[in-house]
Design goal:
Length: 350
């Protein structure tokens, strides 16, 4: 089987990957489409740092022997966690959706010995493969004849919904979104479904600002020309604001604390992997609130699939390119230019 793997920081396409065989509770699927996530780009360059940060964290549940194994960067790493697929076969003693059903799923593979996230794995092929294994209980049938390419964006859109839910934004509030990459766009889409008005979005990229407007932003701001917070003061109508930080680079959170209006909430959904610093006085003097968010829960995942299928969220503007497995290395390079691409889909069968 063919699959793209990360090897020594580079994407390599292999044609000798063993064919996956479904076990109890598992299904074999053919990958229809898989989005390239910004976290994949970051892991390719800074995987060691990401793994080190994970080891340093305390306070996370200890899953013991049933939890995920640690990724070994000296070995090939399978990636691809934003996918849709078609069911091919079912493991023994397993009830699942029938062969031929188009599905998506949370990127987790369960087995009789535990579970493994389908994110950065040495032994479990992900969405950058011709075929992969999924957990039968986690399968969601793609409804309404939805294009499998659009269904593949369920996962990233769920990240935006989770951030909006964590923010506890209410009707009568407005939103300011800092950054219009895929995460910021997912936040904007969830806000427009929620009926939040106004949604002001800021980014340096004209292409990303245009996409933000298609996804539901009422006002977009060129961050090179005007402060996002000045734009909010002009457009917000005096409403309470939730600020969504979807950039994830050092310095942005401190700027938000400095410039946000009094009593604002700041929801941090951009993942900064570097050490950062803030001036706590800004937050104390204005009684600001900070909340962090990452990933999503199963209900949010299912809700996003329904919203895409029913036309509440149009993900088509986010898709700016498609490649086959051989095109992934170039796609990783191309995604560095925000004026050129937002979301590139890997279509293994193309």
């Amino acid at each position: 089987m063919r699959a793209a793997v990360l090897r020594g920081g580079e994407i390599v396409v292999r044609d000798d990957v063993p064919e996956p065989e479904p076990g109890v509770g598992q299904v074999l699927v053919e990958v229809e489409a898989c989005g390239i996530c910004g976290s994949d780009l970051h892991f390719a360059q800074h995987g060691g740092t990401m793994l080190d940060l994970g080891r340093q964290m305390k306070g996370m549940p200890d899953l013991g022997d049933v939890g995920p194994s640690e990724t070994d960067l000296s070995r090939d790493v399978f990636m691809g966690h934003e996918f849709s697929a078609t069911v091919l076969d079912t493991g023994p003693d397993t009830e699942a959706l029938p062969a031929g059903t188009t599905v998506t799923s949370l990127p987790v593979l369960m087995s009789t010995t535990g579970f493994e996230p389908i994110v950065y794995c040495n032994d479990i092929p992900g969405g950058y493969s011709e075929r992969m294994l999924l957990s039968a209980p986690m399968l969601l049938e793609v409804p309404n004849g939805l294009d499998a390419r659009h269904a593949a964006l369920t996962e990233p859109m769920a990240v935006g919904l989770h951030a909006v839910n964590k923010s506890e934004i209410q009707q009568g509030n407005g939103a300011l979104v800092l950054g219009c990459g895929p995460v910021g766009l997912a936040v904007i889409a969830a806000l427009q479904v929620r009926g939040i008005d106004p949604i002001v979005a800021a980014d340096f990229s004209a292409a990303r600002r245009a996409t933000a407007e298609k996804m539901g932003a009422h006002v977009t701001v060129d961050a090179a020309q005007e402060s996002a917070f000045d734009a909010w003061a002009r457009e917000g109508g005096g409403k309470p604001v939730v600020v969504f930080e979807a950039i994830g680079v050092p310095g942005i959170l401190d700027e938000a604390l400095r410039d946000a209006p009094q009593h604002a909430k700041i929801l941090v959904v951009g993942v900064c992997m570097e050490r950062d610093s803030v001036v706590p006085f800004y937050g104390a003097a204005k009684e600001l609130s900070i909340q962090f968010a990452m990933a999503y829960d199963p209900m949010e995942f299912a809700s996003c699939l329904r919203a895409i299928a029913e036309g509440e969220i149009d993900v088509a503007p986010m898709i700016t390119g498609e490649v086959d497995l051989a095109g992934i290395p170039q796609a990783f390079d191309d995604l560095a230019d925000p004026e050129e691409h937002c979301k590139i889909l890997v279509v293994p069968g193309s």
